[in-house]
Write a structure and sequence with these properties.
The protein is an alpha/beta fold. The protein has helices at 10-21, 38-45, 79-86, 95-102, 147-153, and strands at 29-30, 53-59, 66-72, 91-92, 119-123, 132-135, 141-145, 157-159. The protein contains five helices and eight strands; from the N terminus they run H-E-H-E-E-H-E-H-E-E-E-H-E. A hairpin with a 6-residue loop joins strand 2 and strand 3.
């Protein structure tokens, strides 16, 4: 079951519905504390920061297509490594671009259910966990998922783009 979806706010509810539509069995949780950053999410959940999924939006300079990087919460994305796998340098998208393309504000961007389809990369370090937690559309909502299932439903390419040192 995907939990009591009807009790969720509109944004988290839309993400829960999208997860259900893609066959992901999970339960979106609206937390009493902020989950705006990976560190806050880990605190709120009592899990390792490494098990939080950052959903980071990048873009090729001057191009309109968003590129989504799903990265472990305790690491920075190495832009050299990302350029290699993406076939060219990418830059961090500004908050307006993120909102327009995904439909969500930074701090709540989910890994799926965006307005526009994003080319998606998932860092292999996430696969070390049985369960990871990702944002569900708001800075207070998260959902747990097997990282392999997350890679599958986002059609992500599995890559090594995280920094070596946390
Ligand atoms: N809800 C949490 C955990 S799931 C979350 O969304 N984390 S996050 O890492 O995916 O989103 C916050 C990220 O947005 C930060 O890591 C930060 O790199 C990025 N960010 C914050 N402010 C800006 C900004 N002004 N422009 C571009 N990116 C930003």
């Amino acid at each position: 079951m995907n939990g009591p979806m009807e009790s969720l706010g509109a944004r988290a509810g839309a993400v829960a519905a999208e997860l259900a539509r893609r066959g992901v069995v999970t339960e979106v949780r609206e937390m009493p504390a902020s989950t705006r950053t990976a560190a806050e999410a880990a605190d709120a959940l009592g899990c390792e920061v490494a098990a939080i999924v950052k959903s980071l939006v990048f873009r090729a300079p001057g191009r309109d297509e968003p590129v989504l990087v799903l990265a472990p919460g305790d690491r920075r994305v190495d832009e050299e490594r990302l350029a290699e796998v993406a076939g060219g340098r990418l830059e961090r998208a500004d908050p307006r671009f993120v909102k327009e393309r995904t439909g969500f504000a930074i701090g709540g961007v989910p890994p799926l259910g965006h307005r526009v389809t994003c080319t998606t990369f998932l860092d292999e370090r996430l696969l070390a966990h049985e369960v990871v937690w990702a944002a569900a559309g708001t800075p207070r909502s998260v959902f747990p998922v097997d990282p392999r299932i997350l890679a599958e439903v986002t059609s992500a390419r599995i890559v090594a783009v995280a920094d070596d040192d946390p």
